[in-house]
Amino acid sequence: MNLSGQRNQCRGCDQYFNSNKAFDKHRRGEHGHGRRCLTPEEMMAKGMSLNKAGFWITEKMPEAVSDLRRQDEA
């Protein structure tokens, strides 16, 4: 995986994140007091999803926006 810009990998769970915001969203608890990573199931329940490159993102792009992007790429 190419970790450039804000893309990063969590040392706790080895998952890859597309941004610092997505990384922060996958952590729960207070520092030093039960801090942990969310499971993939918990991340999906919070609206997070994997992008085509395999990085977790904070939320899936709405279908209308996704359709417009596909049209622009064609």
Could you characterize the architecture of this molecule?
This protein is α+β, with helices and mostly antiparallel strands and 74 residues long. The chain has three helices and six strands; from the N terminus they run ββαββαββα. It has helices at residues 20-25, 40-45, 63-73; strands at residues 8-9, 16-17, 27-30, 33-37, 49-50, 56-57. It has a two-stranded antiparallel sheet with strand order 1-2. A two-stranded antiparallel sheet has the order 3-4. A hairpin with a 5-residue loop joins β5 and β6 (56-57).
Number of helices: 3
Annotation, overall tally of beta strands: 6
Helix content: 25-40%
Mean pLDDT: 87
- Taken together, the total number of domains comes to 1
Anisotropy-based shape: globular
Largest sheet, in brief, is: 2 strands, antiparallel
Order of helices and strands: EEHEEHEEH
Question: How would you sum up this structure in a few lines?
Answer:
With 74 residues, the chain is of the alpha+beta class.
Give the SSE map.
Elements (H helix, E strand, L loop, with lengths): L7 E2 L6 E2 L2 H6 L1 E4 L2 E5 L2 H6 L3 E2 L5 E2 L5 H11 L1
Antiparallel strand pairs: 1-2, 3-4, 5-6
